[in-house]
Amino acid sequence: MAKKNKKVSAGENESFSVNIKVEARPDTPFYYVNCMSVTHSAFDFTIGATRVPLPLSPEQMASAKKKEPIVLEPTVQLVTAPWVIKHLIEALTEQVNKYEEQFGKITTQIPGSKNDG
């Protein structure tokens, strides 16, 4: 659930704030993802999200061993305005802080990996 106040225009010289609350319903689709990419243009940001399959297929394993990228199609892509990304960063920072207060520090090490990411 996310809450945001957004300024909207009601006419030529009139604007006001609207409180927006996003709530998922039981039938709202959801996707578990463990890999995301972010790109941008002059006009918007694109977040692509997918799930890296485990185990990897023989072709994917061969690419990984040769240090080549494993190409995966995004499960979902979000395209949004730069100002929305700024608010997303603020919201994520707030939620990470709350998470770490409750459950401890999040490390960037991938579970099961040998590097410290």
Strand order of the largest sheet: 3-4-5
Alpha-carbon Rg, integer: 19 Å
**Coarse shape:** extended
Provide the structure class.
Answer: alpha+beta
Characterize the largest beta sheet: strand count, sense, and whether it forms a barrel.
3 strands, antiparallel
Order of helices and strands: EEEEHEH
Tally of separate helices: 2
Beta-strand residue percentage: 25-35%
Note the topology:
Blueprint: E1 2-9, E2 15-22, E3 35-40, E4 45-50, H1 58-65, E5 76-80, H2 82-103
Antiparallel strand pairs: 1-2, 3-4, 4-5
Short summary of the structure?
The chain is an alpha+beta fold and 117 residues long.
Question: What descriptors fit this protein?
Answer:
single chain; 117 residues; alpha+beta; 3-stranded antiparallel beta sheet; two-stranded antiparallel ribbon; 2 helices; 5 strands; 26% helix; 28% strand
